[in-house]
Amino acid sequence: MLSKKRKIDSENKKFMNKWNELYCFVLPERVGAIPVCLICNSTVAIIKSGNLKRHYENTHKDFHTKFPPGNESEQEKSTKAALRVCWVLNKHQKPFSDSEIVKECMLEVVTALFQENKKIVTSIQDIPLLARKPTRLLYQFDNYIVAARNNVDSINDSC
Hints:
Blueprint: H1 18-23, E1 25-26, E2 36-37, H2 49-59, H3 63-66, H4 74-91, H5 99-113, H6 118-125, H7 132-158
Antiparallel strand pairs: 1-2
Protein name: SPIN-DOC-like zinc-finger domain-containing protein
Organism: Acyrthosiphon pisum (Pea aphid)
């Protein structure tokens, strides 16, 4: 009697979301996709926890010691602070140009409260709150919309 060979591909293995954090793998959203390592961009042939774990432990064993989960760089913290300032300004319907005033006020408060801790002052100075940057991006986006609208109008006129 001949035994039928087992086909692993047809076993309908499901990718578990917890593998994102454990092994730094992600499954692209397309039919027939295979897991991709977020660190080295390599793939694993079969969606199985053991395969993902083996790749992670053999190739990236020092990753979580070098980059512990939840560890943010100073630049990421500064960007997050800038976005929070933008959120508050937008919530109160204030222009983004007021962000420089907010930054100046924060610097005055911090220097008054924490004169001996210069790291706090430099952290606030590093927050990227330039009024010109979002304005420039919005201007470029507005030009793109106007060009697209003109293109649609010219197509409608020709029909």
